[in-house]
Design brief:
The complex is a heterotetramer of chains A (57), B (215), C (192) and D (243). With 192 residues, chain C is α/β, with parallel strands linked by helices. Chain C contains 5 helices and 8 strands, in the order βββαββαααβαββ. The termini of chain C are far apart. Chain D is mostly helical. Chain D contains 8 helices and no strands. In chain D, α3 (58-85) packs across α7 and α4 packs antiparallel against α5. At the A-D interface, α2 of A face α2, α3, α4 and α7 of D.
Chain lengths: 57, 215, 192, 243
């Protein structure tokens, strides 16, 4: 259960499946989209709150 | 009784309000065959989807300024002050709109249906469905337009259209049911049930919204 | 005779978007009396009238009414359908076509305008038609928002004398106006 | 009684103070849970027999789509409280949840779409759940534009709450109807009533990622509501002290 499913980093990036297709591109693009969206939203809100606080002061 | 007559008078004398949507409906239904190849089969396949969308669009256009005019000229204020039940008046208003726009559109829709499928049975069966669905469309668009009263009907449509999708699914299924000779009356009862819920609730919600607008 | 109030307001305040419009307005309107609401533009005269009518709710304070009939209200918007004729508009306002109406129409020079579409009339003429409802009212309380705007001198005197007459008929009036009408009225000012 | 209690407890001022205390705790806990869960799910769990490695998208996709619907439920709940008890705070919450809901729905939509390429062979299928997610996305945007189109905020709050409630009645109907219309999507892998259909070793990280993602989204809602409250109450004296 806690063993790596991949033996090397390049394998983890490519994620070659049993049917021979490389699924890495899908998995990692979703990964970056999700994290990108999260980070972006956090940054936007933090920034907006900071600007508004300055204005109110 | 008075309210019924007043609303009738208001709409009947405004021909762009009721004749306009009907003519637009006829135009859409006449224009669509021009976009498909001149073969009856193609026409028949596309006909019903065009029909439902056309009804939807026309009801959207018809309700565009249903409350806006009364709001702008101050009639709504008078209504709120003088009537016991605002929701009843709103219900009557929607009924009049249905009688002057929904019913003619349903009749014309069935005639087009007869013309394209050349089946009397189909036209006959589709008529009540058109009547009920146009009434439901009207109610929901009225709700959307009452929310966005002064902000234009594009926003109203944007927030109402998602609410209408289930109805479109049902309408699609009705046509299949008629074609296969299946449980048509079950669908009719389903639609009637939905309509009876909507007839009661939507005017209540709209009257709440309108009071909030005037506040 | 026991004086009972028709409308009693206590400490009314109103806010829009957290901004104060007016605060702590109190008044009482009895039968046979008039109340003149004054104040500069944007001081909340119309809002106060709408609170009295029950359309808007005050942010703070209370208002009690003691009426047996609907109020008769004429606001900035005259509630006329622009695309209908004067006659149809009168039907919509449940005004019967009878003798008193005819004499009234002659008094305000509108007798020959009955079958004219409202949008073809001038602002003042439209205002007069809207006022017909006030002239023929059967309410205890008249609420008028700037009734004189757009009226010519003749119509203004007609209106004032009508209102003064109404006061004698056990009716009350609440109105807002920049012009001082010749009516015996208490007045409150909304400016601080 | 209840009304008084709610009003006292749910003043924006106390809300912000409480939330500020909890914020960093929620943020760091859920962030670490989420990172561990994603690491576990993306790199440690075994390959799926049918879908290959592409199934790993489940750890990113499912939490987002679960949250996007729960947020709407939360909005409906807050709207009801607002309309019944006139609690201002819940009106603020409804408005501040909407953009976060739109964001998570967007993530669910895009990740599902990408997941569709290897598994269904197409990035867009006229499938029930995709359609209802798309509709949900549009509804969120509609809610935001409805609120923003009014300059009188009190009115906007009321209309938004009404629309959210009407929509909350309609969302299950939309889901049912489009499901009835056609379906291609695999049925939900985990339901409350039935035993889960996937292997526990794949399930635990899924739960963990759902919890972590929920925590992060809660943090976003906190930030969004803070922004909204400060904006709406900027003329009040406590805001100046707070800032």
């Amino acid at each position: 259960m806690f063993n790596f499913a991949f033996s090397s980093i390049s394998e983890a990036i490519l994620m070659e499946s049993q049917n021979g297709q490389n699924h890495g591109i899908y998995v990692w693009s979703v990964f970056f989209i999700v994290f990108g969206a999260l980070i972006l939203t956090f940054c936007i809100y933090k920034n907006k709150i900071r600007n508004l606080s300055k204005k109110i002061k | 009784m008075n309210i019924l007559y007043f609303e009738f008078l208001k709409l009947r004398k405004k021909s762009r309000g009721w004749l306009g949507p009907i003519l637009v409906f006829i135009l859409i239904m006449t224009a669509f065959p021009l976009t498909v190849e001149f073969l009856n089969e193609d026409l028949e396949q596309a006909f019903f989807s065009i029909l439902w969308i056309a009804v939807l669009l026309v009801m959207m256009l018809a309700t565009e300024d249903i409350f806006l005019e009364d709001f702008n000229d101050g009639s709504l204020e008078q209504l709120v002050i003088h009537t016991e039940s605002l929701s009843f008046v709103i219900g009557v208003k929607i009924l009049i709109y249905w009688a002057l726009i929904g019913i003619p559109v349903s009749v014309i829709g069935s005639i087009y249906c007869l013309g394209i499928t050349s089946s009397y049975e189909m036209a006959l069966l589709i008529f009540p469905v058109l009547l009920i669905s146009s009434y439901i469309f009207l109610n929901l668009f009225c709700f959307g337009n009452s929310l966005t009263l002064t902000k234009g009907s594009v926003l109203g449509t944007l927030i109402t259209m998602p609410l209408l999708l289930p109805l479109l699914v049902v309408l699609g299924k009705v046509v299949i049911a008629i074609n296969l000779g299946l449980n048509y009356f079950d669908f009719l009862i389903l639609l009637l049930g939905v309509l009876s819920i909507i007839i009661v609730t939507i005017p209540l919600i709209i009257s709440f919204v309108i009071r909030a607008h005037l506040e | 005779m026991i004086m009972t109030y028709l409308i009693k307001a206590e400490n009314l305040s109103y806010k829009i978007n957290e901004k104060k419009l007016f605060q702590n307005i109190s008044f009482e309107v009895n039968a046979n009396s008039a109340l003149h609401i004054t104040g500069s533009n944007g001081s909340g005269k119309t809002t106060l009238l709408r609170i009295i009518l029950g359309i808007s709710k005050p942010t703070r304070g209370s208002i009690e009414t003691n009426l047996t009939s609907d109020m008769c209200y004429l606001g900035h918007k005259n509630a006329l359908k622009q695309y209908l004729t004067v006659e149809d508009n009168l039907i919509l306002q449940s005004i019967q076509h009878n003798k008193p109406l005819d004499t009234l129409l002659k008094d305000i020079d509108l007798y020959d305008k009955l079958d004219v579409v409202v949008s073809n009339l001038s602002f003042g003429q439209q205002k007069k038609i809207a006022l017909l409802k006030v002239f023929l009212n059967e309410s205890e309380l008249l609420v008028l928002d700037e009734p004189c705007v757009g009226l010519d001198g003749k119509a203004q005197t007609f209106l004032t004398s009508f209102l003064q007459e109404e006061l004698g008929k056990n009716k009350s009036i609440i109105f807002s106006s920049h012009i001082n009408l010749n009516i015996d009225a208490k007045s409150i000012n909304l400016d601080n | 009684m209840i009304k008084k209690f709610i009003h006292q407890f749910a003043s924006p001022k106390t809300y912000l103070k409480q939330v500020d205390k909890a914020y960093s705790f929620i943020f760091f806990t859920s962030l670490s849970i989420y990172l561990i869960a994603i690491f576990w799910g993306l790199l440690l769990t075994p390959e799926d027999f049918v879908q290959g490695h592409s199934y790993r998208i489940i750890y990113l996709h499912v939490p987002a789509s679960f949250i996007s619907q729960s947020l709407y439920l939360g909005m409906a709940f807050a709207s009801a409280i607002f309309l019944i008890w006139k609690v201002k705070l819940s009106a603020y919450l409804v408005r501040s949840i909407a953009p976060i809901g739109a964001m998570t729905t967007f993530i669910a939509l895009v990740s599902g779409s990408i997941w569709g390429i290897p598994t269904w062979g197409t990035w867009w299928a006229w499938d029930a759940r995709i359609i209802s997610t798309l509709i949900l996305f549009i509804m969120y945007l509609g809610l935001i534009s409805l609120h923003d189109s009014f300059t009188n905020n009190e009115k906007a709050d009321k209309f938004l709450a009404i629309l959210v409630l009407v929509g909350s009645v309609n969302i299950p109907i939309i889901k049912m109807s489009v499901e009835w219309w056609s379906t291609l999507h695999q049925s939900a892998s985990i339901t409350i009533t039935q035993k889960p259909a996937i292997d526990p070793s794949m399930l635990y990280p899924l739960f963990a990622s759902a919890i972590g993602f929920t925590g992060l989204v809660i943090c976003l809602v906190i930030l969004s509501s803070k922004l909204h409250i400060l904006d709406r109450e900027r003329n009040k004296s406590w805001v100046k002290d707070y800032v």
